[in-house]
Every structure is written in structure tokens, then in C-alpha cells.
Amino acid sequence: MYPQPEIINTEVYARLPAELYRTDKYSAWVEQRGAGPLHSFLEGPSFDRAGNLYCVDLAHGRIFKIAPDRTWSVFAEYDGMPNGLKIHRDGRIFVADHQHGILAFNPETGARSLIRDRGDVAPFKGLNDLSFGSNGDLFVTDQGKSGYDDITGAVYRLRHTDEMDLIFKGLPAPNGLVLNKHETVLHVSVTRSNQVMSCPLQKDRPGAPRTRMFLQLSGSPTGPDGMAIDEADNLFVVHAGAGTVWAFSPLGEPLYRIRSCAGMRTTNVAHGDPDRRSLFITEAEHGVILRARLPVPGRTVFGLS
What we know:
Structural class: mainly beta
Mean pLDDT: 94
Largest sheet: 5 strands, mixed
Shape: globular
Helix content: under 10%
CATH class: Mainly Beta
């Protein structure tokens, strides 16, 4: 149907040091999935203004900080299941925690605060990822244990005014999410159905009327995970389990296939480097951060705007 997309290769940007491997004190996420021994499970990459790259370790309830010189440190460790991570314009580090809800961490002290408890809305079944709009609205996916046997996944918006509203429900495992360039559409990856949904947004109304399926992927033992947008409104979709990040045009045409040079368990993405033309990819099987160079810069995110 479409020409074969251009292949873009990756390099290993940073590797989790062996001294930070853990084989004990697993989060409940590991037990629930029966995932077996895991030294780490990297997710949720995001840059701060100083060029530090943060990511989470879902397997052990940790948040890592990778300095510009590529040295790793444990920024925070707690009893929880951190998954998505984004940085607020004021510097706070927001985390979608499957166990607790929406958390925020002080970037200087690491002190943790609860923004929205799991029981505040609906209640949350178990958050997965999050994304900021340019006005500070926060969008979150509530995946829980949803799938085709439990089609109860949902997407919420926590407005900058502190009001919460439902965007869409009835999804089999909503996962990554990102706004299009003009912030008129929220793209949501749905892992179990191997799809990306597009939810039209209206500023003053809840919900997303005329939501549609934008992409139907194929293959992968898992499905789509984290996503990002560039300045040309191209959509980058991590295909977890396939060692791939796909790039699609605003019309859904496949442009690039970005291949992992490490393991197959690609999980999430963030644009970085001073020109924003590098895509940084968390790969959980080997505990590495991959980097690929791109022709178009990524869209400036809320935390860096």
C-alpha cells in the first residue's frame, strides 16, 4: 500500500551500570505480569532544561537521572510502579504511577507529592503514561489490567485549573499519548489492539467526539507504547517487542523505521540534544538508552518551553 519506509539506525547512548542492577525488591508490576527476574525495566524518558535525562525503572520503583556526561544516579526510589514521566515547566517531575496515581517530585530534593490519588476519579485502575499540553493541561492513560477481556481502559485530562474530565473510555489497554502540533488532536496508542487512536479535542468541552482509529499496526508480540511528535507533525510510535520506532506523516504514511541496535523491548521516546533532532529511546531488555538522528527536530515539550 505504501513504499517501504526509510531505515534509520540507532546507537547506544547510555547503558545502565551493572552496579545499579537490582535482583530483589521487585515492584508489584513484576509479580502481576509474572515477568521473572529483571535487573531493571526502563520507561518514560524526559529531558530537563539542564540536559539531564530522566527515566523510570518500573521493575523496582526507581527514577534514574542521566547527566549530560552520561553518568547515572538514582534520583528517587520508593514503593510504587512508576511508568510515564514528564517534566513540568516549573521543573517538577511528574510520574504516572500504576499503584498510586499522578505523582510529582521536587527536582532539587526528590520529595514526592500526590497530585491525584488513584481513588479521586472513577477510580483510576492503574495509570500508564502522561503528556502535557502547552497550557499545562495534563493528559493521562488509565490502563489498569484492561484488554479485550476487560475493555475498561480510559484517558483523562487534568486541566491546569485542577478540574478532571474524561476524554475517552472503553479501550483495551491505552498506553502512550501525545498531542498533535496544533493540540487539536490527542493521539493514544492502544496496546492490545495494536492501534493508535486520534481523539479530537475541544477546549471548553469534555470528551472527544468523532474519535477515530488513525493507525492499525501489525506484528509485535506486544503492541504500540510511547509516542512523540516532531515539528512537521510526524508521529513517532514505539512498537514494543519489535525493537522498532515507526514514524508516520500527519496522513498516516510510514516515513521511517528506527531499529534498535540492542534488544527488542523498546518502550518509550523523547526528542533531545540542542537541535532536538535526536530521538532517545528506552530499551528495557538490555537497560539502555538508544539514540537516532533525524532530519526534522522534535516539537518543544511543555517542560522546555
